Amino acid sequence: MATQIGRVNNLRIVKEKEFGVYLDALNLGEILLPKRYVPAKAKIGDELDVFVYLDSEDELIATTLVPEVQVGEFAGLKAIAVNSVGAFFDWGLPKDLLVPFSQQKNVIEEGQTHLVFVYLDQHTNRIVATSKIDALLNREEPPYRAGDKVDIIVGDKTNIGFKCVIDQRFWGVLFFQDAFRQLRKGERAQAFIKRVREDGKIDLSLQPVGYKKVQNILDDIINHLTENGGEMTVTDKSSPDEINRVFKVSKATFKKALGALYKDKKILLSKGKVTLL
């Protein structure tokens, strides 16, 4: 399999030097892994998982550090510098990630977080990124059904909710009423498909859809009660923030779950307290 620039590759050590080891990168020749990244007791013949990129001298180099995003992926990153070339983002490597001015959807300022897509410039072999991501998403028909669990990256906040990248492939919308906690741009989270509209647009929820979300919390409540001597002070009168802190659900879902447990005679509800029966 060909070695890919901008991705993690499994490469074999073929030479040892005082300043590091050389790895067989197949189609890319031999690549240096500097000494500070070489694992203890590593020797010729060992295979290592390394990220391959161009250093500040535009020379191919390997590292055992894994950046927050690789070539072909979306991520929310923070701009740490802006100069005449473009904006530079922290992505977890010594060499920052460049978004050239020509690849900026809107003017990027230092300190801002933006959703970007990382790609390999075919002319220079440099890893760069773009914030012009709309055309890179929704290229196929969504394969989802209501209730499917997905990975999301939170994007821009709108007047109705948050735009989110779903599974690195689609745009979706997380309405405010379906986001029961504070979210920050660039945050990664798990969500659930609420519905796929006829026009292909996707609605999301941070909780399982329908009564399933109530069922999922029932055991959590019972376990919490059991671990705390059969009583708890988190009730249907508690604040949404307290309920979310303890059970990671909205107040509405928590109240439905308490109602179901009370109906099944598994708990007793009293002022300021829930008791396990």
Describe the protein's architecture and organization.
- This protein is mainly beta.
- It has four domains: 8-63, Nucleic acid-binding proteins (OB fold (Dihydrolipoamide Acetyltransferase, E2P)), CATH 2.40.50; 74-134, Nucleic acid-binding proteins (OB fold (Dihydrolipoamide Acetyltransferase, E2P)), CATH 2.40.50; 137-205, Nucleic acid-binding proteins (OB fold (Dihydrolipoamide Acetyltransferase, E2P)); 212-276, Winged helix-like DNA-binding domain superfamily/Winged helix DNA-binding domain (Arc Repressor Mutant, subunit A, Orthogonal Bundle), CATH 1.10.10.10.
- It contains three helices and 18 strands.
- The strands form four sheets. The chain has a five-stranded antiparallel β-sheet, with no helix packed on it.
- α1 crosses α3 (251-263).
- 28% of the residues are buried.
- The model has no long low-confidence stretch (mean pLDDT 90).
Jot down its keywords.
277 residues, mainly beta, OB fold (Dihydrolipoamide Acetyltransferase, E2P), 5-stranded antiparallel beta sheet, 18 strands, 38% strand, GntR family transcriptional regulator, CvfB_fam, CvfB_S1_st
Q: What strand order characterises the main sheet?
A: 3-2-1-4-5
Number of strands: 18
Q: What is the general shape?
A: elongated
Superfamily (CATH H level) name of the largest domain? Nucleic acid-binding proteins
Count of DSSP-assigned helices: 3
CATH architecture annotation of the largest domain: Beta Barrel
User: What is the CATH topology classification name of the largest domain?
Assistant: OB fold (Dihydrolipoamide Acetyltransferase, E2P)
User: In CATH, what is the class of the largest domain?
Assistant: Mainly Beta
What is the chain-wise order of helices and strands? EEEEEEEEEEEEEEEHEHHEE
Helix/strand class: mainly beta
For the termini, the CA-CA separation is: 60 Å
The amount of beta strand, in percent, is 35-45%
